[in-house]
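User: What would this chain look like folded?
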Amino acid sequence: MKINRKTLSLIIASLCGTSASALVGQEFDPSTQAASSGRIGDTASSSSDPRVGNIRSVDDVVPFSQETMHPVSFHSPVFHVPGSMESTGSCGDSQSSSCSPCGTASVCNFDSGLTSSGCGWVETDAILWWGKGITGTPTILRGTSPNALPSIPIAGGEDNPLGTNMFAGMRVTAGKWLDSDKNYGLMGRVFGLLSDGGTTTVAAATAGNPNSTGIGYFDTFIAPPGPAVYLTNIAVPGFGANTGTVSVANDLDLVAADASIRTLLIGDTKGRVDLVSGYSFLRLDSAYGLTSVVTNGITGDGTVDGTVTTITDSFRTKNTFHGGHLGLMNELSCGRFTFSMLGKVALGNMNQTAIASGSRRIVTPNVGTTTSNFGFFAQPGNIGTTSRDQFTFVPEAGAKVKYQLGRGQFGVGYTLLVLPNIAMAADQINHNVDPIVGTTTPARFATDTFFLHGLDLGYTLKF
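Assistant: Here's the prediction, encoded as structure tokens.
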């Protein structure tokens, strides 16, 4: 086989990494792109790009320059390895170089040495939620004057529900994809809410507000039975006045966690819809306390003047849920924005416990102190602990918009959590009271649908 000078020049150029025109003595054209360096086999190791050593297939490298058509020239050393991340591009920081202005790469990279494309994530949220108002509490009343029977509701009952203030808490979500194509992943969440649990004085007669006050109840002793008021502040012209205070404590604590498997149902580089299935745990505790302190000052009513009567009622409930959940999770990306939604329903067993207790302390001048282990609504017939199990379901829905800055995303969202057939502390109060005999009907479970909803302010980091 006869080899001419031009063919020999091409062979030597291929081996030495120089242009053929330089070898054959032609004038060098600076616009012609030369080979990267060295021999063809040395190209990967000699490149300054640290990712070259992780090239996985021939398709990862452009075989020749589109501009020069030189057989040993390559594009710039930015190899489009599926799943690799670039620092520039229309999709923003930490986005794939191959993604469009709307959407991100649908694969993640497990090779060492390559920048991560988001195979794992951690999301923290400050949650600011509000709850459904609690209407089963006793009604605190006031009168229009110091000696008028209280009749105007100022706290509790249907007109003034408790627990409508904001609850603050935190939620942490973490997950990781199990395969490079993000078809399957694991995800876990833990979140909780804590109320202040403080005690508030809602009724007291002062110099600036001398009107009468009291606690409403349904008297079963009188004939016929009907509404009545336990007086804490009342004045009787010519005989003196009773003075006192009414304090209310309302507390709610929520702790929940779940673990899920995410399975891709449908999706592309711009969005995806996943099936979410797994295990859910939830614990909601509520408490209601009512304390009245009355100092007797009415002469001739059968009670020694100066006698101090303190009555305390305490009602608590514990709701513990274990079950499985099933739902859908959606993510849609466009540039730096990501919109996500979650909807799921958990089904399982709810263990409910109700605890009622009370105390009564009477301090009589020059006589002494007497105590009893029951209060006003917590009577001997309903004090104690009662438990039961009930099958129920817990729906949850949420949506969030995130904006990417650097490697993280800041987001704002909304969550709705519904708790059907939940036992709240105030709902366990029986308003039928016999103040003379001191008994009420036995304790029973009263349930209601309770819900929490509000804002989520979070930060997401993918790694």
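Residues 5-16 form the longest helix (12 residues). If you want, I can go into more detail on any region.
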